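Researcher: I've been going back and forth with a colleague about how Transposase might be arranged in three dimensions. Neither of us has a model we trust, so I'd like an independent prediction. The organism is Faecalicatena fissicatena, in case that matters for your notes. Sequence below.
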Amino acid sequence: MAQGKRQESSTGVYHVIAKGIARENNFSQIRERKYFQKIIRKYKDKYAVKIFSYCIMSNHVHLMIGAELPVLSLFMARILAEYAIYYNYKHNRNGHVFQNRFTSECIETESYFWNCLRYIHMNPVKAGMAVHATDYRFSSMREFFPGKAKDPLIHPDSLTMAKQKFGDCALFEEFHRKRNYEIFQDIYNEMEQQRLEVAEKLAREMYEQAQMNYLTQVFEEKSYREEYIKNIQQTLNVSQRKSKLLYSKIRNQVKNN
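Model: Here is an independent structure prediction for Transposase. You can compare it with whatever you and your colleague have in mind.
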């Protein structure tokens, strides 16, 4: 099936995801993640792209990049191709390493920029690969803290923007512990988990605002239940069928806890 034309960001900033083919863990080893960092470092200046944030997971990678759309495509094609050659040779294999072409979403607002940056940095924590985002060695989170990263990949503009926005590292780190309603591009399982987290948050907010005695009242009483499903549909911009599926999962999750 032909893939659609990429949308162009009015800000020139994109959230990019490259996934291992067939969910293969093509960054499972430390030296593989280090090598991918090395490739990014090798080409980011050559193509004059700005790396605002990144995270290398075991089977996919997130990058927030500032670049013109044609340059972005050239840069990603180059780094993914070079890594594929390395990975195939290292594992004595042939064929594709990444699933189709990389995906990208446009970062159009300052709010979406910071929320997406936070989402990228929190991936290892959500996956149980680190207790705190600053513990993870293969993301840009450490690069925002003086002395934690020896050879940073992110563009100086990213540090300047963070300082202007948050003032100090403590507030920047505190921001990462918050959660909002936005859903970001990721592998399917991760996006579904994001939707479930938002749906659960909506249930708890309804429970608190209505001063219910039990959280299960959200699901047991018809008026609350209908309002909750409607909130899921509107907040996540999903179909009524999908909102009911999410409702059922959260209901079962709450009842089993």
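Researcher: What would you highlight for our discussion?
Model: I'd start with this: The longest helix spans residues 69-90. After that, consider the following. The radius of gyration is 20 Å.
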